[in-house]
Amino acid sequence: MASAFEYAPAPESRSVVDIAPSYGLFIDGEFTDAADGKVFKTVSPSTEEVLSEVARAGAEDVDRAVKAARRAFEKWSALPGSERAKYLFRIARIIQERSRELAVLETLDNGKPIKETRDADLPLVAAHFFYYAGWADKLDHAGYGPNPRPLGVAGQVIPWNFPLLMLAWKIAPALATGNTVVLKPAETTPLSALFFADICRQAGLPKGVVNILTGYGDAGQALVEHGDVDKVAFTGSTAVGKAIARSVAGTDKKVTLELGGKGANIVFDDAPIDQAVEGIVTGIFFNQGQVCCAGSRLLVQESVQDELLDALKRRLSTLRLGDPLDKNTDIGAINSAEQLARITALTETGEAEGAERWSAPCELPSAGYWFAPTLFTNVTQAHTIARDEIFGPVLSVLSFRTPDEAVAKANNSQYGLSAGIWTEKGSRILAVANKLRAGVVWANTFNKFDPTSPFGGYKESGYGREGGRHGLEAYLDVR
Ligand code: TAP
């Protein structure tokens, strides 16, 4: 059974991170107040405790940061790739050395279980910097012809679901290719980006190469609309992504957009059921389902539906929800009160439209933002919960009879980011994967990431690829 939450704040793990009462913006190698002196608070979503107060950037600060990045660009882009690589390798090693501190910090600010920040987020963050460090002196051999050039200043805006990992996806390829960066983290998770700024200083990175602007959506908007930004990289909601695409239309800014998803996890009747159950759990309950490539739609072949759902419910009943700093916790807090309200509203719509709700039996803590692992059956393709991204620990279950029907249902989405296939037949994996309109297709696994693999979407999931050799292209002027 899931444990009741008693917030014994695991003092020994909390003490590995020293969070200051306030932080400034990181511009031109220095921490500085916002020009208008504005600040905002960041809270721990598992306790609602205020963790720190951080500066809130405005348009003037965006301009200062872009100017600093522009000044730094000339020297940074002229460095030999092997020199830039040294900085990136140094950053990667410092991240490894400070990984315990960063994992606890990320868990406090985001609410996700320490098991995930320790074993998934932080190793992937370091791996990303190591991987792109390796490319810095090999750009002439990346398949873009001789002498690919950096674009200039990259304006990068990231969400709250993987704060440090999204930062790594954005900053590592940008720096490896010789660009300089102004990055705005999400307002609910500013802290790990500020600790990363400290790591840049520790690594001796030249000032102005990386600038961090904590703030709200208006700062993100001012950044992407700034006239001296050459490249925009955005990860977040489809609505904001569309607004950004509109705002840069007619300029020569290069843009990559990583937006929402409604991934189908397809289980065929020959799949090993226990393994598939684990993959479904990873697919939708990892990071409380706040994952753009989550397997939020389960498509199960009719003949094994009952067996699979019984096994899945049994497994979900064993998940432990509670203190994210506890190493045994499987399900942490939802990132914010707003996100919890969105999840709650969508699940209410699911019930109102006639789907059948089942939630894992667990007690929710009284403080903080929590949602029990939930699944819906009797879901049709027309239901809102089968179409809209919920971005929470909620699975919508649909069934199918034939592989063609599975493909048709999987592709019946405005999104096209991810999909999963569970079957013993290799030929079926290849046949089905080729028909799926999804940027990432996992076979007999889910939510596996690697810096060498390109990641990105079709349709309203955005465009451009991050990761791998493909991720370099977004930051290069290929002549
Ligand atoms: P967004 O509102 O899109 O926020 C993403 C980032 O963009 C944040 O840093 C945000 O700042 C900033 N931003 C907001 N408005 C902007 C604008 N007009 N111009 C430029 N930047 C702007 O997403 P969210 O509020 O974090 O989450 C909302 C929904 O987006 C979720 O429910 C989920 O469906 C989806 N989402 C998708 C992903 C991925 S990975 N595809 C990740 C997160 C969320 P603030 O933090 O200050 O708003």
TrEMBL record:
PROSITE patterns: ALDEHYDE_DEHYDR_CYS. Pfam families: Aldedh. The keyword Metal-binding does not apply. InterPro entries: Ald_DH/histidinol_DH, Ald_DH_C, Ald_DH_CS_CYS, Ald_DH_N, Aldehyde_DH_dom. It comes from the Bacteria. SUPFAM superfamilies: ALDH-like. Residues 32-478 form the Aldehyde dehydrogenase domain. Gene3D superfamilies: Aldehyde Dehydrogenase, Chain A, domain 1, Aldehyde Dehydrogenase, Chain A, domain 2. Keywords: Oxidoreductase. This is Aldehyde dehydrogenase family protein. It comes from Streptomyces drozdowiczii.
